[in-house]
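Lab meeting notes turned into a lecture example. A postdoc, R.K., suggested we walk through two folding results consecutively so the class can see how the record format repeats. The first protein's sequence and structure tokens come next.
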Amino acid sequence: MYRKEGFRVRFLGLSAEIEEKIRSVMPVAERKKHKTSLVPVTNTLIFDLDHGTDLTRLCSLLDSLNLRPDQYDVWGTLVTSSDNDGIDVPDYVLRFIRRTNCKVGFSFVNIGPDDDRDDNGEDQPSRPEGDDQEHETGEGESHRLR
């Protein structure tokens, strides 16, 4: 079974001046193009939230910037081949969320079973190539997934 989870801090649609201030205290933050049309921003500043990362200077800076809640969040991601899985939020991530009062989002990606058996060992029908699934976003829109 394949399983990978991670947490990131994302800053959305900030000015170049604010981005530079954040990068001065978190040099690992990278500027990325936003990949979804659900959030109307053109840029994202992002870094992995790992155990042991010192966030003291970032938290102090965030206190002084007074960013709106829609300008940054913690994003948890789980990619798995399991049809039944979940994600635990570690204490260090919870402390950052509580300290900054930022938003939280999650992404779950099922890459399909390793074989034609589900997690309980039962045979599953194979999905034909090109067969799309519709995914409801909760925002009144749906997207086609492969």
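The second example is placed directly after the first for contrast:
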Amino acid sequence: MIYALCVSVFLTCFHISALSLELGFLSVSPGRISRIITIALFLGLLLKERRLPGISKAGRYPVLFWLCFVLFSACSYFWSKDTHAWLKNTCSFAIGFIYLIIFLDTVKSAASLRLLLGSFSLGIVMHNIIAWYQAISGNYILSDKTFSLSSVSFLYTPVSTQNNPNNLSLLLVFGIAACLVLFLMLKKPALKAACVLLAASSAFLIYLGASRACLLALGLMAATVPVAVLPKKKALVFCGILMAVAVAGFLVLPPLRSVVTEFKEIVQGTSSNTSDTIRWNLGLSCLHYTKETHGLGLGAGQFQYYMKNFPTEYFTGHIIKAHSWFAELLVNFGVLPFLGYLVFYVKLILDFLRKKQSPLSKYMRGVLAGLLVGNVIGSISPGTLSNTMWYHLLFGILTAAAVLPPDGNGLSA
């Protein structure tokens, strides 16, 4: 079963729209076919062995939460106006939920986790190859769009198969975390060196994509790891030093000082930075709709429909995607599911930070906790993530990693 999951993770990560076949209302792609086959194999395995999915006690909470979330998403049909968007969004969350169950049933050891992270990293390798070709040649193969030169004057902005540098950048942030965990898991020097090179290459591609949120996400991930691995007193000292350095940087360095000035101007509505102003106004629009629905939410996948047909007073330049994963959840699903997600998310971070009895070393857990912390900022980069299947699958893998049994293949440091 683990090998079917590996193939599915790879094909979902390395999605190529050019290989998709449009059949009316249905799009058929290698990734989608692999997910159908994987789910069918898992159901066949359960029937053959005459058992229910093997979910540990630690894994019951995320399963229960996501079951309630998917049921709420299904019920939101009754107040959704765009039924096609509702169906697409609900199916994405439902598939993510099914995969969560499969991961929790299958991933019982660090060795299984290593295979999944390896298959995901192989997809990141493919993205790197295509992205570097695009950056050097300016030929946007396997992409529907073209882009101008990046901040490095002789290189173009890479997008790989994602059609947008922000989407690629967030994918690469997760890829860098996977590489770092694999670096700690693997023993062969050549494979360790490959992990370092892939992480460095991915980081530079994020820089070329000019995704400030994802660059900040990498910074937050790097800052979280020492906090996770140091003793409490030293971690507090490190946090104090980090905060002092950050404050000093904002006070002394002009580029950082301008960030504070820009934020004030955005809030006051006097900013000349259209991109940041639009993102701020999209957030205000999410709050507006949440208030108008009395906290119930618009319904699964409905934000874009409302922005197109019932726009708010806030200027967004005809951009109708939320550009914030957390705001997207709030406006579509309402206050209660959103608060439930926050509890789930924070608990996932704390599980990595606090769990001592784990087959993963404290350094591995620190990287994964750092990824989740960085993702809070990094997830504002893409326009929407609700229908992004690799994102749902990766969170299933992260959840399975957080609840690994302590006797699951000793790779602890």
